[in-house]
Design a protein that fits this description.
CATH topology of the largest domain in chain A: Aspartate Aminotransferase, domain 2
Oligomer: homotetramer
Helix content of chain A: 40-55%
Largest sheet of chain A: 7 strands, mixed
CATH architecture of the largest domain in chain A: 3-Layer(aba) Sandwich
Radius of gyration of chain A: 21 Å
Largest interface: A-B, 56 and 56 residues
Order of helices and strands of chain A: EHHEHEHEHEEEHEEEHHHEHEEEHH
Number of helices of chain A: 12
CATH superfamily of the largest domain in chain A: Type I PLP-dependent aspartate aminotransferase-like (Major domain)
Structural class of chain A: alpha/beta
Strand order of the largest sheet of chain A: 2-10-9-8-5-3-4
Number of strands of chain A: 14
Distance between the termini of chain A: 35 Å
Shape of chain A: globular
Chain lengths: 393, 393, 393, 393
């Protein structure tokens, strides 16, 4: 009695889009107000200037862009990078690499510091690179390179970049809200994230933390998009209840975001992060107890919001995920680009960051491997995941 | 006992965002699936290639872009217009004028054929202009220039442009779904609309009908955005269940759109249009019976999806709308740009295109005028609106 | 283009079931918890012992019965009335009369004090009746006899009954939440209401305020239902988070009720009542300006939560309402029993208690009358309703 | 990081109330129509006379009562049993026993055929009893005695009772929709179930299948409740679009039921039953592989919709469930009455009847036992559950 492709699955344990919190779904279903209705203008100001700002632990008012986080990343590249700039792109995975393509479009020279895609960037190497090229004006780093499930030390990198005087773009799309990271602690000038990962919303919005230095740079950049979907500048004052919107905000998604922020601030960020960390730890324990290998070179750089599992030799990774879905109704994410076919990702994001789901994921992964002819000890995996949850791992 | 600004109003009779259909709100609240989940891939194909295509009465498969319709318009300009192009922009209002700013960014020469903002474009004038400048490669027209509440004869304009051989961009954002217009009947090469007006969804998506000729032009344009939020090309095949998405689609909004299309196709387009037309007719009758003047120069060019009412001499239009909201909980739209302060707009879009709402709008507008010291005969307005509904107007 | 019977109407202006507040609908859609889940037990205690108690302005903890308010009324009769009792039933309408049928089932002798169904009970007459029959043990009165749209002076009646020493059952189903009435101010021993009228919930629950004296009487009554759907006693302690439920509570409806109470207490009872009163006043003004007659003999006894309009001679009342729905999508309530066919009721309850809806109702009623061949001045009606809203009535 | 009591749990695997299907929650959130609105009258007829009838595979039109299924059971007892009747109540558990209390209230003599609460009724014994007492007029049996997780052979019992000529009341509240049972195959005269178990709705409605013989008996019974919440007769014709409702139906719950029936009929009853059976089989395999004992004496009588697990010696069952919730966010049901404290129940009903949830339940139960000091092999349990799912058990 397999789950048919057209049936909704039982459990979506992906790295995004992730299942939304029930309260967020209800938030999306609020009546749609006119964007210039005073009630919506108050909502927008409250969401952005109060709730989102508190969630970001930010001094300045963040910016909401009305497209999924790749809009935020593309807009950051298009806005912060000037034609003559030398840009240093730190690459430890597919998403870090991908940002380089946008950066190249806008800068004079792109330098990349690249490590294997199961490794993390060394802040010392960044420092050396910056010393070698004092003309580097902008540095970009992906905090959680999701297709690898690895975390870069953005706090240390941020300190190095700030000492150098360059501006820093941090892609924290799939880490923010699931672990301890925020714009100021990593000295990001533009910090890009979204509600559709660890905050448990659907994809449709970008969240940007923009430092005062970055606002100054944007305003001084004649090529920074204006009157465009790609513009950050257009939205600088849009959060004010009496300021106009440059174009129509995504009313329903803003309502959903408010529900997500209420949950996040209500549960308490530290508790939310602990929930993510505990889920990931249980998942890693279970996966390894089945004899599988994590994709990250070391557990220390494994993400608390996604566990990337190396595909065993000879296994068709797409068939593996298809089996997990068809047999158990459990959905995982594939790799992307270079990691596609080489790893499977189990997401621990927002509503799915529940330790018990890690144990379930381990069993489903083990069962699906068995279906591919790879015998693993599902019982050992489950037991290890449970022991980790119970603090006995 | 006025309605406080922070309270939700009773009735949102705006020109967008409009109130969403209840079924659309429930659609938004569906569980959020992984975009590569087969169930979502099937949904996406069904929504775009079947339901949306049928709604657009289109031979080709339409394109969904994941930002509100200004994204579709900006993307159309950025993609279809080549650097050396001469572009003819037809301007009968603020939105038509606005498109020129985007067009100018991408073309060699921008020609504008402009009429007063309470008038409509004359197809004969378009023909003359095209004859005068055979090098015009792209023509752009706004079907319903919402800030004026006027309709341009796109069918006739389309015939003229097609005969000339230029490509045509039609902005039908606030008319499609509320009246008889579709890409092929007006020979549009890129037809831009959105679900957030007459289809009764929240704002967050653009719908594009792209002709074969336009696809060919896009592919031949080296400057057409690729790997960008502004790209149309990226999404050409994304509707196929087995094709990748260039980036993450707005899952919840797609679910909402499906609910809207089910309503639209279920009620029957002709019935939906009749509902819009009947509401607008009642509204015009009521407004005029109170001695007010429509903004459109002639009733023949007044939109069936929005009624623009000229602000009487000496009235503060913002205060007028504020009074309608505070006293009655009824929200109207202001003008935009040149029409701001000079007219008030009553929307008849999607769920608000109900004739009885027109009578209510007339009363609320009349009452709000009275509050501004302009005595109008509210009873006469109401009676005229009702008579129009009853076919006695 | 009439509204088809299978289509949802535009505006439900009935006396119940009424349209629910949007926030209530979202409350109903919360995940369904196990009734013995501690989170639900806390919810139940919070809703009943805190929020509902505050709404009822009650010293004791109210009781929730899990069926629409007729359950509460039947249970009150079955529980409070003892076999040997003489019961005085005050009858000013169909609902008051109906309660007598239940009372008769349980008592030794039923005395009825009846006035015409467009009148209200005179407290003096109650006093006289009680003096004449000192053996009367229980008195019952319907506060708002909905099928007549009339209000009885329960505060004065309560004082008389209390002085006499009998126990008082008050049916405040369709008045509580829409005007100033609560168990203690009318000295009710059992006060029955429901969330499905002025609180803006769907029908499925009964709310009972039970005085200490009534609890004592119930416990002393060997025939009071126990282990039954009709039991009040079963539920006495069910609100406590650690007490068992006698049977399964209606989880979703309790969640909906919580949303409704949050709205009611948040807006402020006095403001909510003013909204109801203002709507009814506008409705009465409009209806009378069209030359129609209210059903209540005097405006002083007309309900602020429903306006009953006498059906003009020769009009088929069912056809009248059908016309209002088919032409305008506006739904009214019929009379019931003796008032069926003789009046039409326009509800002002919860989300529909908005003054502008009164003006719309007047127009729709006027238009529907015209469709029945009765010419009324719709404009005069609309103007009078609007003037009343604007405080110029 | 335990789950706090006030936090929603992660997974509600109870025997009711159960989590509702997402589509049912959206159904509950539909606009609330007036019960006499033609659109609602059509809905009610469609739900009851078409969809529910098809789900029940019933020739006659079923009855909906507007309270959770204990209302249906109490109403069945009150309506079908006549004062002089001899009633045979078949008791294999707490719920069967409980029905006797109601039966006793209405009959002349109550005979009980009782087996231990981990056993099932033997149809041969029923036959013998009926032969011994030819005056037995009504027989009652609980199909799935939920507090025991055991199934009685109602088909065989029904044949015996029919041959005898008595009328049969079947309580199939927690089995219908999750396994192959319906009124006619078990020759039930009154078949009581509810949407709040295997159909995945919240609790608030009773569903009754009433045979022609039962209708005749009800009508002939002068004591059968009329004009009462306990009445079945009141509702006989209420499903007809043009018939009145005896009191107000629970509009939102009816909308939720329609969504549930659409899911049930859409997925296909046989597939739904297989999903339930597969989940239960996996659960039993896992539980037993951990060395735990099922409550039912034999696996053959274990319910496919709930697995009752005997509490190991010395374990505090309430603490066990509390640990499962606090540690893993997983909620189970306790026993009831005689089985309280002696077993834990894992529900497989509606949306929770997913095999993978069985494996998760096994782990959570195992982990919670460990927390109570009972070491079980969680890994073996998980592995056995997974093997059962994969058809290798």
């Amino acid at each position: 009695m397999p789950y048919a492709p057209e049936q909704d699955p039982v459990l979506t344990l992906t790295t995004g889009p992730v299942d939304a919190y029930a309260a967020v779904l209800r938030g999306l279903a609020r009546p749609v107000l006119y964007d210039y209705d005073p009630a919506f203008q108050l909502t927008y100001e409250r969401v952005v200037a109060d709730k989102l700002r508190r969630a970001l632990r930010s001094a300045g008012v963040p910016v909401l862009l009305h497209g999924e986080p790749v809009l935020g990343l593309e807009a950051a590249a298009a806005s912060l990078i000037r034609r003559g700039d030398v840009v240093l792109n730190l690459v430890s995975g597919v998403y870090g690499k991908g940002f380089g393509f946008w950066a190249k479009r806008y800068c004079a020279e792109l330098i990349e510091l690249e490590v294997p895609y199961d490794e993390a960037i060394d802040p010392g190497a960044v420092e050396a690179q910056l010393r070698a090229r004092p003309d580097i004006a902008v540095v970009a780093v992906c905090h959680h390179d999701t297709p690898s499930g690895t975390i870069n030390p953005v706090r240390e990198i941020g300190a190095v970049v700030a000492a150098h005087g360059a501006q820093l773009i941090v892609d924290a799309v799939s880490s923010f809200g699931g672990m301890d990271v925020d714009p100021e602690s990593c000295k990001a000038d533009i910090f890009v994230t979204g509600p559709n990962k660890c905050l448990g919303c659907p994809p449709a919005l970008s969240i940007l933390g923009v430092s005062d230095r970055a606002w100054a740079r944007l305003k001084a950049n004649p090529d920074a998009p204006r009157a465009s979907m790609l513009s950050i500048l257009d939205w600088e004052d849009a959060w004010r209840r009496d300021a106009p919107f440059p174009f129509t905000p995504s009313v329903a998604e803003v309502n959903g975001l408010e529900a997500a922020l209420d949950l996040y601030l209500g549960e308490g960020p530290e508790r939310v992060w602990a929930r993510h960390a505990g889920t990931a730890a249980a998942c890693r324990a279970g996966v390894q107890a089945m004899g599988l290998k994590l994709w990250p070179a070391r557990e220390a750089i494994a993400s608390p919001t996604a566990t990337a599992v190396r595909t065993p030799e000879g296994v068709d990774e797409a068939a593996l995920r298809a089996a997990a879905r068809a047999r158990y109704g459990v959905v995982f994410s594939s790799g992307r680009g270079e990691t596609l076919g080489r790893l499977t990702r189990i997401g621990h994001m927002g509503p799915t960051a529940q330790p018990i789901h890690a144990a379930t994921a381990v069993m489903a992964l083990g069962g699906a491997l068995a279906a591919q002819g790879v015998r693993v000890d599902v019982g050992a995996g489950a037991a290890a995941a449970m022991a980790a949850i119970d603090g006995e791992g």
